[in-house]
Specification:
By secondary structure, the protein is mainly alpha-helical. It folds into two domains: about 5-100, no CATH class; about 115-345, MetI-like fold (Orthogonal Bundle). The chain has 15 helices and no strands. The chain has helices at about 5-35, 40-55, 65-70, 75-85, 90-100, 115-150, 155-170, 170-185, 205-245, 250-255, 260-270, 280-290, 290-295, 305-310, 315-345. Helix 7 crosses helix 9 (about 205-245), helix 9 crosses helix 11 and helix 12 runs antiparallel to helix 15.
Length: about 350
């Protein structure tokens, strides 16, 4: 890659990074305002808990019921101050914006611990499944899509298309339930465990034993993680390959007597991979966001389950932290996709 081209890419990356700042600002403003204006604030959640506790008690020495005390103005004022709702909305946002400069997202209202530490404890679960599903999906779907393009219209192409469509028609939630019922101690076989990422005796196992134990726990959830994108990516790879091999330069290469494999893998594959690069940003989002349904079904304590519980409990600090990190990861993913375009096709110029 030439110096001028490298300079152009560096300038483009720098410009995109600078543009991320107002983008993140806009996303957080909209989300912060929407969340804070939505009904069911943390104060209301806390009041319900106090009222429920008051309903279980009687009167104190002053003759006032616990329920009356629970909703007194002093209690409300203390709760507003505790959660920061004693200040106007725009002031609260500016305080939040100032705190995130040091990655201080406050404490979780539900878990009563720093939000960053809470996310750090849940993130590895979603990250592991995200990375492995990304690698496995691309390793399988790209060769499969190429093979389907090379033998387009054959029995292999028709049979694999039918199989992929059947997989695509099964919701990941339903597939998870079927796998648990069939292979995880349900009505049939008890071949795979459900819950956690490793066995209780994991620390006592040798290195190879730890690897096998992880694989044993990962198989069923990983199948469900991959199924959503498997069919789409394979079809995208096939269609992209078919479009490229129909172009004149490919027909010229074939006319010169080159073997099909050389034509496909050496001349067509690189250009056919360009549309596939767009999927990288989406996968990066999965790394962080996780999957609410799959984590709930397989009892995996990851980011998806944390997001779900934070929304239910109106844990604003956790919600805003997840939105902030997810937005950054998605924007970085889009940047990585654009850089990948250049690596695949140097003809693309960002100047």
């Amino acid at each position: 890659m030439s110096g001028a081209s490298s300079s152009g890419i560096f300038t483009y990356i720098l410009r995109r990074l600078v543009l991320m700042i107002p983008t993140i600002f806009g996303i957080t403003v909209i989300c912060f305002v929407s969340i804070n204006l939505a009904p069911g604030s943390p104060i209301e959640q806390k009041l319900q808990m106090i009222r429920f506790g008051g309903a279980m008690g009687g009167q104190d020495q002053s003759g006032m019921t616990q329920d009356d005390q629970a909703v007194s103005e002093e209690v409300l004022e203390a709760l507003r101050k505790q959660y920061g709702f004693d200040k106007p909305l725009h002031i609260r946002y500016l305080i939040w914006l100032k705190n995130i400069a040091t990655l201080n997202f406050g404490e979780s209202f539900t878990y009563e611990e720093p939000v960053v530490g809470l996310i750090a404890s849940k993130f590895p679960v979603s990250l592991q499944f995200g990375i492995i599903s990304l690698i496995m999906t691309y390793l399988v779907c790209i060769p499969l899509g190429i093979a389907k393009a090379m033998w387009n219209g054959s029995q292999f192409d028709s049979g694999s298309t039918f199989f992929l469509l059947v997989l695509y028609s099964i919701p990941s939630m339903m597939l998870a339930i079927l796998l648990i019922v069939g292979f995880a101690g349900g009505a049939f076989f008890d071949w795979f465990p459900v819950g956690e990422l490793y066995s209780d005796d994991y620390d006592d196992l040798a290195t190879w034993g730890k690897i096998k134990d992880r694989i044993h726990h990962f198989i069923l959830p990983l199948i469900c993680y991959m199924i959503g994108n498997f069919t789409v990516l394979t079809k995208l790879m096939k269609d992209s390959m078919l479009e490229v091999i129909s172009q004149d330069y490919i027909r010229t290469a074939k006319a010169k007597g080159l073997e099909d494999k050389i034509v496909y893998y050496k001349h067509a594959l690189r250009n056919a991979l360009i549309p596939i690069a767009t999927g990288i940003s989406g996968f990066l989002g999965v790394f962080f966001a996780g999957s609410i349904i799959l984590e709930e079904i397989f009892q995996l304590d990851g980011m998806g389950l944390l997001s779900y519980k934070a929304i239910l409990s109106r844990d604003y600090n956790v919600i805003m932290a997840i939105i902030f990190f997810t937005s950054i990861i998605m924007l970085i993913g889009r940047l990585i996709s654009d850089i990948t375009y250049v690596l695949i096709d140097p003809r693309i110029d960002f100047n």
